[in-house]
Amino acid sequence: MKNTENLALVRIPAGEGRAFSVAGANLTWKVRSGEANGDLCLFEQVVEPGEGVPVHTHSYPEAFYVVSGNLHVASSGNSSESWDCNAGDVVIARPHTPHGFFNKGTETVRLLSISVAAHERFFDAVENADEQEPFSSQPLAAAFERVIAIGAKTDTHFLPLSSEESAPEE
Predict the structure, then answer these.
(1) Is residue 165, in this structure, part of any structural domain at all?
(2) Does the pLDDT of residue 148 top 70, yes or no?
(3) 151 within a domain of the structure (yes/no)
(4) Is residue 164 part of a domain?
(5) Is residue 74 part of a domain?
(6) Which of 16, 25, 117, 146 has a Cα-to-Cα distance from 156 of 20 to 30 A?
């Protein structure tokens, strides 16, 4: 049974939330699961031109809402499950569905990721690892290998890069 003692509206004003950048990801937590009675988490992500998140899976659902820009979303290189998404588009990745995204354009993309509390484990572990040994002090390929290892321990499993994806540049 859920705790209903602290039911109330909560407002997170524009520009607020706990921001962090690590291993090429620029995120701002808008809602942590603890603030939502354990039901969900939500973060805003800024994806600069040429950046993205490689195809990966996890055992829970995640939804993406494109706020601005054009985002290429793919499922393990399968062209029938690949879209160029614009502001207002929503993509849902069901549990265990391969998904990744990339900004192929020239403008910054902003998107919201909405998921369950379990999604926070990966990001918290990455942020903690960055505090222990900053990813920025390592070549991108080495930093990405660390992220892959963290993902394997926190239910985020990165798939091998397809021929359309490129390895992180040094």
Answers:
(1) no
(2) yes
(3) yes
(4) no
(5) yes
(6) 16
Number of structural domains, the chain?
A: 1
Sheet with 78-86, strands from edge to edge, namely 78-86, 70-75, 99-102, 52-57, 157-158
Distance between CA atoms of residues 96 and 59, nearest Å = 5
The pLDDT value given to residue 140? 83
Tokens matching residue 5: 């003692």
| pTM of the predicted structure, to 2 decimals | 0.84
Alpha helices per DSSP H over the chain: 119-132, 140-153
Inter-CA distances, 123 with 41, 70, 117, 142, 153, Å: 11, 24, 11, 18, 12
Instruction: Tell the residue number behind the tokens 């969900």, with chain if given.
Output: 40
User: Looking at residue 49, which CATH number applies to its domain?
Assistant: 2.60.120.10
Residue 24 CA to residue 138 CA, distance in Å, equals: 12
Amino acid at 83: W
Summarised one tens digit per residue, pLDDT across range 75-115 is 875 556 789 999 999 999 999 999 999 999 999 999 999 99
Residue with tokens 């993205």: 52
Distance CA 47, CA 117 (A): 23
